[in-house]
Amino acid sequence: MTALPDFRQGVLEAVARVPAGTVATYGQIAWMTGYPRRSRQVGMVLKGLPEGTELPWHRIVNAKGYVSSRGRWWCAMLQIRLLREEGIEVDDDGQLDLARHQWPG
DNA sequence: TGATTGACGTTAT
DNA sequence: AATAACGCCAATC
Q1: Strands, E, within chain A: which ranges?
Q2: Report field, pTM of the whole predicted structure over 0.85
Q3: Cα–Cα distance measured from residue A65 to residue A90, given in angstroms and rounded to the nearest whole number
């Protein structure tokens, strides 16, 4: 319904392809989708996801390897928890080692 | 209809 | 090295 449903769909597919135990950046997802510089839009799509989604949105962090849900404390906490469950070391502030966990893609 | 904002990233200073 | 500015564009005001 909103514009660019194909872009949104592409984002969902790309996120779904990220293997468990690894993380990807917004820019990486945007690149995979075919729109290299729409990292911001990727974030918008993830923001609009329903709670019960099966999509591994928690594996998406910003380029600094840092959880970008700062205002949404509930989402951030959930994301950190999910990442830890996959064996990824995440700081209480939502920071992790990109060089160690980033998906090569 | 126009201006501002924002789960980002890169380039320039 | 740290900070500022720009690009991007849908959603919101």
Answers
A1: 24-25, 60-61
A2: yes
A3: 9
